[in-house]
Amino acid sequence: MKLIPEIREDVLARNIERARERNILLPTFGQQKDPFRAPTDIMNRLQEIGLWDLDPANLFRITWKNEAKVHGGGFGQGNWIEFPPALTGVDATIVGIVGKWFPTGAHKVGAAYGCLVPRLVTGHFDPTRQKAVWPSTGNYCRGGAYDSALLACESIAILPEGMSKERFDWLATIAGETIKTPGSESNVKEIFDKCWELRNSGQDLMIFNQFEEFGNYLWHYEITGHAMEEVLKAAMRPGDEYRGLTSATGSAGTIACGDYMKQLFPSSKIVASEALQCPTLLENGFGAHRIEGIGDKHVPWIHNVKNTDLVVAIDDNAVVN
Fold first, then answer.
1. What is the rounded CA–CA span in Å between residue 126 and residue 16?
2. How many CB atoms lie within 10 A of CB 9?
3. Quick check: 272 and 308 in contact, CB under 8 A?
4. What is the rounded CA–CA span in Å between residue 45 and residue 306?
5. Helix (H, G, I), strand (E, B) or coil at 8
6. Contact (Cβ atoms closer than 8 angstroms) between residue 285 and residue 246
7. Could you tell me which residues come within 8 angstroms of residue 284 by beta carbon, excluding any fewer than 6 positions away?
8. Is the pLDDT of residue 259 over 50?
9. CA 284 to CA 279: how far, in whole Å?
10. What is the pLDDT of residue 1?
11. Which of 104, 173, 309, 310 has the fewest beta carbons closer than 10 A?
């Protein structure tokens, strides 16, 4: 199966010309895995700009390997935190990779890149005529709006009205339009309803629904999975054994890196976490919660559930209060 069946040469030609005019260079997945492969002029430009600046060079900072610097940072080996048994009370050492040093402070810029850029380079999205719509409960629409701004695409962000004021204030400066839907973190259906309304509006739009976009899954399988592998090699000591990965279900993008790791370690496990107050996989349940990005009343189309071994519930009150 091909995700994109053919190349639309006329649109692609316009996209190439637009990129030339605006000095936009697209990093490959290979360069996002190994950002030291970025062109020298890009590396030099990054020394002059901030992590969140609206400069197309920051497309090369869509990687897990940014230096932990807000301005002028280069690349390193990645950022992670080790939680030792003395702290957690469990026998295993727990390692968490850190997404703070992506542009926007969240790795969703990567998922959005994996959805939008394949359409641009095959002529299936025309930024001279279409708007990119980013439905989300928060960080994905921020990532999509940011990527769109760097790629000279108009954007519409959709998210629940109950999300933080800081999110809406930031989106007001980045997205072309921000649409508020009823509810809060777990009200995803209302976001989907708004998407259908936009589809039927007659506007020339492309909706990048992270819950069904295989570009989201593939970016995390390839880029996040590779980053996990490298962090594991750096963190493991003689005699250590990799046992598995735990990830929130969310849009089922990040958890795809568990599929990558299971290819390397077939006996390892993949653990999906949900809010106890909204235990969809665990108990076929639903409800409201405040844990942002953890999962919301449905099973995403791109979730490889047959490869998921365990489901755990996290109490909203334990992590928010």
1. 11
2. 10
3. yes
4. 44
5. coil
6. no
7. none
8. yes
9. 6
10. 46
11. 173
- Distance between CA atoms of residues 131 and 198, nearest Å: 11
Tokens read off for 244: 């598995």
Write down the pTM of the prediction. Answer: 0.95
The helices-and-strands tally (H runs, E runs) of the chain is: 13, 9
Q: What is the dihedral of CA 265, 267, 268, 273, to 10 degrees?
A: 140
Q: Considering the domain delimited by 78-321, tell me its CATH architecture.
A: 3-Layer(aba) Sandwich (3.40)
| pLDDT value, residue 268 | 98
Q: Hey, how many other C-beta atoms are within 10 angstroms of the C-beta on 87?
A: 10
- The helix/strand/coil state of 292 is coil
Structure tokens at 165: 């004021």
Is residue 271 within 8 A of residue 314, CB to CB? The reply is no
Kindly state the greatest CA–CA separation across the chain: 61
* Three-class DSSP category at 261: helix
- Name the CA dihedral angle for 296, 301, 303, 304, rounded to a multiple of 10 degrees: 150
Which residues sit opposite 96 in a β-bridge?
A: 81
The SS3 call for residue 30 is helix
Contacts of 303 (CB under 8 A, 6+ apart): 249, 252, 255, 272
Residue among 295, 290, 247 nearest 268 (CA): 247
Q: In the chain, what are the domain boundaries?
A: 78-321
Q: Which amino acid is at 100?
A: K
Q: pLDDT, tens digit, for every residue of 100-126?
A: 999 999 999 999 999 999 999 999 999
Q: By three-state DSSP, how is residue 58 classified?
A: helix
In angstroms, the CA 41 to CA 313 distance is: 47
